[in-house]
Amino acid sequence: MVGVTIVTFALTNLVPGDPVSAALGEGASQNPATREAFIREHGLDQPAVAQYFLYMGNLLQGDLGRSIVTGRPVSADLATAVPATLEIAVCAIVVSLALSILLGTLAAYRRGLVTDQIVRVVTLVGLSIPTFWLALLCFSFFFLQLGIAPGSGRISPAITPPPTITGLYTVDYLLNGDPVGFLDALAHLALPVLVLSLVTTGLLTRFIRTAVLEVLSSDYVRAARAKGLSGARVVFDYVLRGAALPILTVTGVAFGALLSGTVLVESVFAWPGLGTYAYNAAANLDLSAIMGVGLVVGLVYLVINLIVDLLYGVLDPRVRLA
User: Fold this and answer.
1) Is residue 21 situated within a structural domain?
2) Which residues cross the membrane (predicted)?
3) Residues 209-221, buried b or exposed e (16+ Cβ, 10 A)?
4) What DSSP string runs through 267-315?
5) Residues 114 and 43 in one domain
6) In terms of residue numbers, what domain contains 36?
């Protein structure tokens, strides 16, 4: 995380543009006294190294600065944006993983046959379609033309947001015993999750097919078949368990990418998540918000990698023995 702060701070300060003008606006930034006061208040008159340690001192106290776009503390903005992105990312990775295990295993068992070829073509199409185009297509077709899906946002305008407990609207509605709000929030999740799932499924399916093919050629799987075990038991107890570690690895990477790379999908569906917040921060040269997003993304990948490493020991006793 210290390395992430150094890289984020360095890259943010290399961004072309005038942060003082971006923060104060064109009018106020032309006033020398106002400009000088802002520079002194934020330590911009000090060397870069001193600015970094000033930033780290504030960071250790939980102060990520104040956003010039929203006028609120960056930590408060992230506390709202991160759960919104987490909600669609968790749903998308669950749907993607379930579909990918089914399609990847089926393609591996039917290697070289028509089923395998169809799955490979479908996954290749899923990987090739631009995410923003797929999002626009789904929005236009399901909302504008068919009218079977709700519009943009996390909930309908007539629905009151739930009291914040977790920040995940579907969970908070359930915890507050509000089935109407839960169904409305779930309906708004459908299209963003559909788009992200289609893209992620293409990646995971191809990887799972390769991992399952490698396990199918192993001696212990052939021995299990020779013992006369049922096909379902061979798949779940031997094949998928043997392929669990590489599947877990790529799933962790895909989940991290979903959390940090949903800006295009969130923009299309006006989803107030981390991607939209990062885009608005970059477009307005909101340096405090940009650094806050960078820290969150770095923390997400570190936590996911830690969880994946711990799960290695749960799934494979050899890791625990090592």
Assistant:
1) yes
2) 86-109, 121-144, 185-204, 243-269, 289-315
3) bebbbebbeeeeb
4) HHTT--SHHHHHHHHHHTT-HHHHHHHHHHHHHHHHHHHHHHHHHHHHH
5) no
6) 2-60
Pair 99, 208: CB distance under 8 Å? no
66 strand-pairing partners = 73
| The token pair that represents 242 in the structure block | 């043997």
Instruction: Tell me if the pTM is above 0.90.
Output: no
pLDDT 10s digits, 44-80: 677 778 888 888 888 888 888 888 778 788 888 998 8
Residues 231 and 257 in one domain: yes
Q: Looking at the chain, how many residues does it have? A: 322
- Of the candidates 241, 224, 308, 305, the one whose C-alpha atom is nearest the C-alpha of residue 101 is 241
Whole-number pLDDT of residue 24: 64
**Token output for 62:** 């939980």
Residue 126 belongs to a domain:
yes
Q: Which amino acid, 37?
A: A
* pLDDT tens digits along 157-189: 888 889 888 888 999 999 998 899 999 999 999
